[in-house]
Amino acid sequence: MRLPVIPVRQSSSSGMLLWAYVFCYLVFLYLPICLIPLFSFNDSIQAAFPLKGFTFAWYRTLLHNEGVRNALFTSLKVGLTSAALATVCGITIAYADVFVRNRFSRLLSFLVKLPILIPGVIIGIAMLIVANLVGIGPSAGAIICGHILLAMPATVMVMHARFAGISRSIPEAAEDLGAREWTLMRRILLPMAAPAMGSAFMLAFLTSFDEFIIAFFLTGSQPTLPVYIWGQLRFPRSLPIVMALGSVILAVSVVVAALSELIRRRGQNA
Amino acid sequence: MIFTKPDKTSGAGSVLFRCGIFLPGTVLGLGLVVFSLSLVTFFAFRHNDGSLLGRGWTGSNFLTILTDPLYVRIALRSVILAGLATLATVIAAYPVAYCIAVHGGRYRKLVLFLVTLPFWTSYLLRVFAWKIVLAYNGVLNSFLVGTGLLHEPSLAFLNTPAAVVVTLAHAYAPFAILPIYTALESMPGSLLEAAADLGARPLTAFRRIVLPYSFPGVLTAIMVVFIPTVGDYVTPALVGGPQSVMIGSLIEMQFGRANDWPFGAALSVAVMLVIAGLIALLRKTEAGKESRL
Lengths: 270, 293
Prior knowledge:
The complex is a heterodimer. Chain A is mainly α. In chain A, 75% of the residues lie in helices and 0% in strands. In chain A, helix 3 runs parallel beside helix 6 (140-165), helix 3 packs across helix 9 and helix 6 (140-165) packs antiparallel against helix 9 (194-210). Chain B is mainly alpha-helical. Mean pLDDT of chain B is 86; it is low at 1-9.
């Protein structure tokens, strides 16, 4: 991770001091994370300095590991499904909240934001109880439900911001010209909100792809990647493989998050 | 308001559209959120007999939490550790939020993005990174021994409550920066200029203007950091050791080895009550502050 060149906007020493502090803070934020990719190339089982030498061996082991491949497949399945569903929910809930605006729409948008105020462990056990009661038990389907809940607040907020930013005169003009609500949504609002939809989808996918605690409670026979990693942490010998896998996951997260941000910013000016 | 009367545009299609719009939210909001939380509350008042729904009604689960010294100690420890982590996070984040809001200029968006980016990476991996840093044969020890500051690796870093606080403060940094930044962003720069013109020293201006202005943001920051940290499971489990078992680990245990779901549900309800109490307290503080201004 490259850190930014710290800009000096003003001559006062307090401003300089503040920027120096921000720089140190960013180092504190990124340094521990950067150790994972660093040691994933280190030719040693231990994560300690001095470095022993450069190797791709851990990544090669990763490629041929069946457990990793299965976990990756589960993670992708769960992530893409929950992201798609969370995006649809985000669109409809935000639409109702911005354009319908009745008591029920406000209640719904309050309820789906509630998971922000609940620690992950509790969401996990609540979903576990529901899954057992409904009869599906711990399974990929149950994880998907939990991840939708977790991703909802972000997708609703992204879509809400986009819908609220659309000038009122556009849907009014469409309605004057005789467009029904469905036509209006399909032909005008959704195309205008497409970048926000993409951004919401990516954020929801990341939420699911990186999520551990809910998946931990709801994993049946197929672990997701974070749950797989958790299982490997007990074995000191698999430390380097965990770091190689961790580096790949970090890279995916950084790329998807950056893309999502770019798309969202572009979309806001449209 | 344009869409308030669906019967004006009329037709079955319009009603169908309305149903479609409200369906996902209803399934999620009422079906999943309300239903699952009600179930947890229901379980909290049941006897554990190993069956799916438990047996009979009882308040003994809550009585145990309130009276058993073991659980009281773990609950207190959770609140104290989460409180310390929140304090550390908010204090460390404040200057960053201030700097971005006041001196950010054209780098504002870039720095904000850099600060929030780690939030979108795996929480488990960020905690794991601290385990590598603090371990006996880890980064910090190998660095300290290598530079001669220590003669032999120290055990004093990993598996301590301090490790939990540092790791949590690192993991939840963006949560604290964003609300404070949002509060300060709306502060007009002219306020500070006026204060300076009227002879206020920078420190006075900060105490009398900036701090009160950022107050709602600080309260939000406290809330959004404290909530996930008080129930955290991963951090105490990976870097905390036996001295920092928190309530999240206790809940996990009831649904795992201990297999006492009603008690686990009661613990969860207790955590949610503490959180609700905190939110009410912060709301009241904010309202009180505003009425005095």
